[in-house]
Design goal:
Shape: globular
Helix content: 40-55%
Strand content: 15-25%
Largest sheet: 7 strands, parallel
Number of strands: 7
Low-confidence stretches: none
Oligomer: single chain
Order of helices and strands: EHEEHEHEHHEHHE
């Protein structure tokens, strides 16, 4: 398939996990892909398998450096068609709010919500010039239902859903769509840091009784950012094995 031939894609948080799987699939389907991630190449980032895409070390809470990097990608490639933001951190787990520190709460919001705000603004100028763009944020079922013991993560993802819906409506009369994808728990390296009791709780809520895979996320994400998804914006898609009820 060459759904994304001659298109330029930016995958934030694409060095491992969900973002890596999405970046791979976009590249296989013809996109010119750049990955932005805070991970260094000598850390636990996965390496592209001869797919020819570029990687940049960027902290999306650093607005200035982020904007400079996005500008560099646009100047090099001449356009920007797709943004997928899968950057995110869990923060504390199995921690009730009385034991959840304000510093930890702010750290999670800075990455998951403020970072998403920064990266959305950074790409919209070019997409507006083109009158075309696809923006997709990876949110979470925790933003819809709330996961006990994960107040920072749940609140940040609920806020991100609000950002998606608001910005999607702002640009609904253009060729730019803005959507979210809310998975239930997915088998990724990030969940290695999840407390076992939290992971058991989240899996028990899934009627399919299993974790999702990164390949399943990539399959739906790539449809959402394709030209086929032309009448969907400001919407939160579910990928929850039956957990989502609304």
């Amino acid at each position: 398939m060459e759904r994304f031939k001659n298109q330029v894609a930016l995958v934030v948080g694409g060095a491992r996990g969900i973002g890596y799987a999405i970046a791979q699939r976009l590249a296989v389907e013809g996109a010119k892909v750049s990955v932005l991630d805070i991970l260094q190449k000598d850390e636990d980032a996965q390496t592209p398998e001869n797919l020819g895409y570029s990687t940049f070390t960027v902290d999306i809470t650093d607005k200035v450096h982020l904007e400079q990097t996005v500008k560099k990608v646009i100047e090099r490639d001449g356009r920007l068609d797709i943004l997928i933001n899968s950057a995110g951190i869990l923060g504390s787990t199995a921690t009730k709010i009385q034991n959840y520190t304000l510093d930890d709460f702010q750290k999670v919001l800075n990455v998951n919500l403020i970072g998403a705000f920064n990266v959305t603004k950074a790409v919209l100028t070019q997409m507006t010039k083109q009158d075309y763009g696809r923006i997709l944020h990876i949110v979470s079922i925790a933003g819809k239902e709330g996961n006990p013991g994960m107040v920072g993560y749940s609140a940040s993802k609920a806020g991100l859903m609000g950002l998606v819906k608001g910005v999607g409506k702002e640009y609904a009369d253009t060729g730019i769509t803005v959507n979210g994808l809310a998975p239930a728990v997915i088998a990724t390296p990030m969940n290695e840091d999840t407390a076992p009791e939290m992971l058991e709780y989240m899996t028990s809520k899934i009627p399919m009784r299993r974790l999702g895979t990164v390949e399943e996320v990539a399959a739906l994400a790539c449809w959402i950012v394709s030209k086929e998804a032309s009448f969907n914006t400001g919407f939160i898609f579910d990928l929850s094995g039956g957990r989502a009820t609304y």
